[in-house]
Amino acid sequence: MGAIYLVRHGQASFGSSRYDRLSEIGRLQGSRLGHYWREKGLHIDRWVTGSLERQVDTAALALEAMGLATDVAQEPRFNEFDHVRLTAALLPRLAEHDALIQDYLAARVDRLAVFQRVFEKVVTAWTDQDWGGVVESWPDFSARVNAALDSVIESAESGTNVAIVTSGGPITAMLERLLSLSPAYAFQMNWSIANASITKIQFSQQGGRRSLGYFNQYHYLQQGADRTLVTLR
Known about the structure:
This protein has eight helices and six strands. It is of the alpha/beta class. The protein has a six-stranded mixed beta sheet with strand order 3-2-4-1-5-6. The longest helix is centred in the middle third of the chain and has 18 residues, at about 110-130. The relative contact order is 0.20.
């Protein structure tokens, strides 16, 4: 069987004007991934990323740590959904009936402290309703991500190991289909996906078999009791 190793990118620069750039911790996470795979002796036959800076740079740092100069293919269909546009479009509508979001928009609460709660409300509304083309719909997002995954698997030779460096949303969409989950259950898994974590999907070209090998593996980022490199955002 072949294997797809889904890697969530390293920590981005949350709260800065250049969110897409890796933070210093994110850069360390990318390098640690490469060292881990090198020590493990894992051979990756093909590397694919989305076209976002944080995805591309995570792969580059991992390859550098592995001492490799492998070509990396970019596939924009593995890009994350636009969370900035999504929140900007939905928050005013949700605020009509939600006191927390009203307070968030009016800056009456610590916006950083409540961001995750607010964002979960946005995602729930996004996946539950059709917003009439205001933003990319969840079904459209899931379809484009899974079409990209299908393309990678269909072009892979038997026994191939492929690394796909992407984001939490695309990994969620793949798990939704692979495990026949509702969007709500899929996103319950999403909230625990660590930066630079690895999720393994095994596949066989015969019969189109696909199965989950493991999910959200990030033990290699921990050094004893030090969890500095374990981040969720």
